[in-house]
């Protein structure tokens, strides 16, 4: 899937650059969960967040939306780990028939974190993995249940 940025996305990326001096590779406006998801260049995450989350709070006031930031990585597994952090992913399991990839988490307590409230984290993983790696995310499963 080709990534295209509209006027609004480019404006949001520029606001982030001005306020935090960090570089965003991509910006997704998620109307369903009323949030803006930034994909931050590797190594710039500390600059983007700021001391005690100060930059995020300032940017949320300016944009008037909830912000979420994900650090980019070229490896799909590491990128997915960054998306669902603090949940720990054990491995990715490719589904045979649909070509979807299932996320397998280590602990039962990580299952709820990886899915998120109303499925917001798994939806974020679906959007970003489709944009960056052309990968379809299926379900989030517990590692021992999938074995």
TrEMBL record:
This protein's superkingdom? Archaea
Chief subcellular location: cytoplasm
InterPro entries (alphabetical)? KH_dom-like_a/b, KH_dom_type_2, KH_sf_prok-type, NusA_arc, TF_NusA_bacterial
Q: Name one GO cellular component term.
A: cytosol
Query: Boundaries of each KH type-2 domain copy?
Result: 20-73
Pfam families documented for this protein: KH_2 (PF07650)
Instruction: Give the UniProt record's GO annotations in the biological process aspect.
Output: DNA-templated transcription termination; transcription antitermination
* UniProtKB keywords: Cytoplasm, RNA-binding, Transcription, Transcription regulation, Transcription termination
Name its cellular compartments: Cytoplasm
Q: What one GO molecular function would you report for this record?
A: RNA binding
Q: Which family does it belong to?
A: Belongs to the NusA family.
**General function of this protein:** Participates in transcription termination.
State what protein this is by name.
Probable transcription termination protein NusA
| Organism for this UniProt entry | Methanosphaerula palustris (strain ATCC BAA-1556 / DSM 19958 / E1-9c)
